[in-house]
């Protein structure tokens, strides 16, 4: 891949409600909820190219088919827009720093691309780079680093716009909390150390503090010492500002955030109202598999007090994404929703049928920490999961921890 390329999708890959930034951070390709796909100039959010598609019902995906066609498809798989390159061997779609989207073939050549966009809004100041050790007046630091004299520490402003200080082993000892693609650090001509957007506009003064927290301090050189201290000083050597040296401590890495579905802005649908916990069919490709699933649910002996699930078999919900389903459920009292999706019927053996189990917020509170978490479960485990969560006999983590390495809970009620 060329250094100017940002990977968007490869064969068989699709985006849904996601964005991809160019390597420079100056352009963003976005798949919008209404089905439109557009390349935006980040500095002013102006779309420089778009498909202009509108998906019925709002559900769509953007991706590259296995036969080389870049497409926007609706929830039923109907093509709303395509690049017209089907039948040709494509390796990937990429977003270039110049702001255009292109399809590259196996030979590395672009065989399709969007029109040339207006010149990017960029700042010539980013070309005035330092020597890699000291940032002086009139110089900038973006997508680069400053190294301490003996190489003990490296201060970097990476392609996400985050400033990071690492030791010689690559361990992060300090970083900014924000990420803003395209931004960087500038020691201005007047000596002010500032944080600037891709177009050079001032975001804020980097070192403001004390009585004037919004006013940047001024100096002649900015560097990092072998003690891991960031220093702004005058040419005379007088230190105007310095950070605190990092203290070597062993901090356990936080547990990774579990994947989750995030609710969309869909309105509730009365067809999804149920008195018992709903089981919603969103894939209609395998009638025999659906019948087998219902049979096994009916034949599974449930624990005392289990009301059972209520199946919703309506083609209107074919292809409905979980994040939309969560928002469309009109009842807030259910702890979970069970989903018979495409993965349910994708198993080679019917004995491996599994349903998607999605946790729902408490009384519709979207800040509920478990809202949208999920795992899969075999039909024989459904009644136990439903009852235990409905009665709060256990919490979500207790059940999720029973999932095997493939993400499926196979513990059934005896």
Overview of this structure, please?
The protein is mainly β. It folds into 3 domains: 5-113, Agglutinin, subunit A (Orthogonal Prism); 124-242, Agglutinin, subunit A (Orthogonal Prism); 270-409, Anticodon-binding domain (Rossmann fold, 3-Layer(aba) Sandwich), CATH 3.40.50.800. 8% of the residues lie in helices and 30% in strands. It starts with a strand and ends in a 5-residue tail after the last strand. Mean pLDDT is 82; it is low at 208-214 and 363-368.
Distance N to C terminus: 55 Å
Which CATH architecture of the largest domain? 3-Layer(aba) Sandwich
Number of DSSP-assigned strands: 30
Mean pLDDT comes to 82
Provide the helix percentage.
under 10%
Largest sheet: 6 strands, mixed
Query: What overall geometry do the principal axes of the alpha carbons give?
Result: globular
- Summing up helix and strand content along with how strands pair, one would put the structural category as mainly beta
Question: Could you please say which CATH topology of the largest domain applies here?
Answer: Rossmann fold
Tally of discrete structural domains: 3
Low-confidence stretches: 208-214, 363-368
Amount of beta strand: 25-35%
Based on the model shown, name its key terms.
four-stranded antiparallel β-sheet; mainly beta; single chain; 8% helix; Agglutinin, subunit A; 30 strands; Rossmann fold; six-stranded mixed β-sheet; 414 residues
